[in-house]
Amino acid sequence: MIAEALVELQDVRVRFPASYNWRGKPTGYVHALNGLDLNIIRGETLGIVGESGCGKSTLAQLLMGLQKPSSGEIHRARHDNSWFGSGMQMVFQDPQSSLDPRLPVWRIITEPVYVQKHNSSRERRELAVTLAEQVGIRKEYLDRLPHEFSGGQRQRISIARALSSEPDIIVLDEPTSALDISVQAQILNLLVELQRQRNLTYVLISHNVSVVRHMSDRVAVMYLGQIVELGAAEKVLSEPQHPYTRLLLDSVPRAGRALDEGIVDKKGELPSNRNLPMGCYFRERCPLAGDGCQMPQELVCGAGGVVARCHRVMPERV
Ligand SMILES: Nc1ncnc2c1ncn2[C@@H]1O[C@H](COP(=O)(O)OP(=O)(O)OP(=O)(O)O)[C@@H](O)[C@H]1O
């Protein structure tokens, strides 16, 4: 395992039963992740992009310990695969539905740490006050219920809750897409500032190129449950190596537009993940498809240390 890697995934596959015979035995599967190799490095923000259905949420659940791999290996710096011991927390897209509406905010913020340590109410309150200050929620508001806050404030509460158990990694699942444009930047800046202060590690799932560019150190591009390109964010987003990444970025005519909005118009739907394509998974939609694409593709290291799953990538000379 690489020294500073907090999590390392090796050839991880996840499939879900999709049809059953009369005895209740699965006869077909949805192949959500299909051989994922990935490590997450302490202190980085790793952006995950790809079309709807490519497996981003399944990857998030796997990291959180909420989903088991069907095959492959996950190595963690913390040797506990349960969700509360895995050193992971998550900030969800919609703070409205991810906060318990019946609990006062101080209880919500300290819930993860209470589950782990069963600390007293006084200790929980003290921790809630500290965390609320760090995310910009006034301590006088800690007895209020979630519906008494605005969307941006609720997302601040979600972030405080994620911080409470001092996780190794926080998975940010579209953390600003449900918020007004005016507060999106404030939440992103808060996340950046907290990361700087606490050396946090983020896995950022987003359809928004500007958000990914603003936040990420590395970007992983997913297609049909595989990583097709991975490398430094500025390289992947400005000089993409894989034809799929190029198509994704080309279909974003202006900043702020969702990454995959245009690609379906141009190239049709993602192929079915019930019957995975032979050879390169992207072949049917690839403008450069030709000889050599009938074979399954390996990740090749190209310019600037970016790896891409395409035989056309020119290997980097050392
Ligand atoms: N519990 C499940 N049972 C059956 N199929 C599932 C399950 N969870 C996910 N899938 C399927 O696995 C594939 C990957 O889904 P996933 O939610 O990980 O994609 P995604 O990239 O997060 O999509 P989105 O951006 O729309 O959230 C999809 O085809 C989805 O229908």
Automatic annotation (TrEMBL):
It comes from the Bacteria. Keywords: ATP-binding, Nucleotide-binding, Transport. PROSITE patterns: ABC_TRANSPORTER_1, ABC_TRANSPORTER_2. SMART domains: AAA. The keyword Zinc does not apply. InterPro entries: AAA+_ATPase, ABC_transp_ATP-bind, ABC_transporter-like_ATP-bd, ABC_transporter-like_CS, Oligopep_ABC_C, P-loop_NTPase. SUPFAM superfamilies: P-loop containing nucleoside triphosphate hydrolases (SSF52540). Belongs to the ABC transporter superfamily. This is Peptide ABC transporter ATP-binding protein. It comes from Rahnella variigena.
